[in-house]
Specification:
209 residues, alpha/beta, Rossmann fold, 6-stranded mixed beta sheet, 7 helices, 6 strands, 11% strand
């Protein structure tokens, strides 16, 4: 089941990578009769070319407005590729004159919690970062995969997600499976923290029914 932490308006801009998570969210929102505009960021990679062509074709066939951002600088010597892509993607999304919704999910939140813990301080992915909104942080990744399978939603897979040269991939592939053996309820723990954090922050949003 795809669940939203807070109510989503009828007209939104969705950050969409072409992967199963964001494509499931796109289809979910359009099935809910939301008017969705897509924002795609090209990471300057071979997969970025593939995903851009896929997104462009999908949006054209389904009459969806598309806004695209591109890498505009060289990677700094002290930036990892992950940091570089994340920084440039956030800069693009924050440059849009609207709220931008993403498909970040509960598994992303668990991975980020572990990643930040190993760097000194465990942190939650915030449900809001300026104009960037993350309503699906309490939905497990499996729910998006099931949606794509059950609804025949097309997507493209990023090979970087399984490339162990990236820290997040090593956490996803190697560390999370071991953590689940020790604490099978880790997703429930992080979900409760996300809900508590949301409910105790002063904002103008309310949980969706």
């Amino acid at each position: 089941m795809i669940r939203s932490l807070f109510k989503i308006p009828n007209k939104i801009t969705l950050a969409c990578s072409g992967g199963p998570d964001s494509m499931a969210v796109l289809d979910f929102l359009r099935n809910g009769r939301k008017e969705v505009r897509v924002a795609y960021f090209h990471h300057g990679t071979d997969h970025g070319d593939e995903a851009y062509k896929f997104i462009l074709d999908y949006c054209s066939k389904n009459d969806i407005s598309l806004t695209t951002g591109f890498i505009k600088r060289e990677k700094a010597p002290d930036e990892s590729p992950e940091e570089f892509w994340r920084n440039e993607r956030l800069k693009f999304l924050k440059s849009l004159d609207c709220k931008v919704y993403t498909g970040h999910n509960l598994d992303d939140a668990v991975e980020w919690w572990m990643f930040t813990a190993m760097n000194g301080t465990a942190r939650l992915i915030p449900h809001r970062n300026k104009n960037i909104m993350r309503p699906f942080l309490i939905t497990p990744k499996a729910s998006f995969s099931e949606w794509c399978e059950n609804k025949n939603v097309p997507f493209v897979s990023d090979p970087g997600n399984s490339n162990l040269k990236y820290a997040r991939s090593r956490i996803r592939q190697n560390i999370i499976p071991e953590i689940l053996k020790i604490n099978p309820g880790i997703r429930k723990v992080i979900s409760k923290k996300i809900k508590y954090n949301f409910e105790n922050q002063n904002n103008d949003m309310r949980p969706a029914c």
